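Researcher: Final request for today, and then I'll write up notes for the group meeting. The sequence and the SMILES for 2-acetamido-2-deoxy-beta-D-glucopyranose follow.
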Amino acid sequence: MSVFVILGVLVCMEAAGSTDVKTLFVQTGKDVLLEIMDPDAVKDYILLAWRVKKKDNDPEYLVSFSPVDGPDVPENYSKTVFPQANFSVILKNVQKADRGLYDAQLTTRSGQRILVTYNITVLDPVSPVKLTVEPVSSSPDSCNVTVSCTTDDYTISSTLTCTHQTCTNQGHNSEITPSAASLHIYLSDDSITCNHSNQVNWTTALAPINLFCFNNPGPQCVCADVTILRVKIAVFSVGLVVMVSAVISVHFMKTPKKREQPPTSQGK
Ligand SMILES: *[C@@H]1O[C@H](CO)[C@@H](O)[C@H](O)[C@H]1NC(C)=O
Ligand SMILES: *[C@@H]1O[C@H](CO)[C@@H](O)[C@H](O)[C@H]1NC(C)=O
Ligand SMILES: *[C@@H]1O[C@H](CO)[C@@H](O)[C@H](O)[C@H]1NC(C)=O
Ligand SMILES: *[C@@H]1O[C@H](CO)[C@@H](O)[C@H](O)[C@H]1NC(C)=O
Ligand SMILES: *[C@@H]1O[C@H](CO)[C@@H](O)[C@H](O)[C@H]1NC(C)=O
Ligand SMILES: *[C@@H]1O[C@H](CO)[C@@H](O)[C@H](O)[C@H]1NC(C)=O
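Model: Predicted protein-2-acetamido-2-deoxy-beta-D-glucopyranose complex:
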């Protein structure tokens, strides 16, 4: 009876409990840890509850920790909500429908307050990108090409002016796609890269610059195979290392050095 009276008073005291909202972006299917950063705050508690508020619905209880009964997870969350000993909770295999505001509501004798609120957004990894280069015009020592980077729902294009050595970019080259990812074309020393990224994931396609104008007349797709490029670089690096070590070992063989003996406990 007296407990109900106390709780009634406590609910009224909750009002001013505005805490920082931590924004979290989680990749679909991943797990996320919701933490009470200061476990000391959970001393002499009556109840600690993690709740979720999805859209405008009332909050649902994910887990209630009580000093008497330990953590209690409702049946329908038993496969996804895993309470930890330090009052944190792990949400497993997060799906898009799980987006919402998650908070930890602490009830003590002296009141009720929100310890932390997480704003969780669930995002799919970005789709692969395809980089296409089409010559527009050319003169003996420069050319213009249009570079297009395509995702499954958007294309961004950029015009480059290239010489034999280098390209420069004309105009803006970064946009937000309908799925709220960002698509960015940029030049580096020897290649052009398209980066498709969101808060949880990114993927790129790239094409070497020196092939753009002069070796490849006519439209073509250089759907850059990053893997092949990486393999080439790896093979090249290995070759280089082997050559360098061969040179070094030949050099050092001329001035043979005594192999060091392992230290022994004898002597001194
Ligand atoms: C709480 O426990 C989890 C493991 O169960 C750990 O990963 C996390 O760092 C802990 N958090 C704090 C604030 O102690
Ligand atoms: C889980 O069950 C509670 C009642 O025990 C209900 O209010 C809530 O909507 C259910 N949530 C889901 C995701 O099914
Ligand atoms: C939660 O985060 C999303 C993405 O940043 C934002 O659009 C939304 O307004 C936030 N909601 C609240 C209640 O802070
Ligand atoms: C490339 O485009 C720029 C700007 O539109 C133009 O000034 C230049 O003449 C073009 N170059 C060639 C080789 O067509
Ligand atoms: C792609 O963009 C993301 C987000 O801005 C960044 O973290 C990542 O390093 C970029 N990748 C490359 C290869 O530039
Ligand atoms: C993006 O997501 C894909 C699919 O889950 C994964 O294979 C890839 O490693 C991720 N890339 C990054 C940079 O996190």
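Model: Helices lie at 2-13, 226-254. The first strand starts at residue 21 and ends at 27.
Researcher: Thanks, that's everything.
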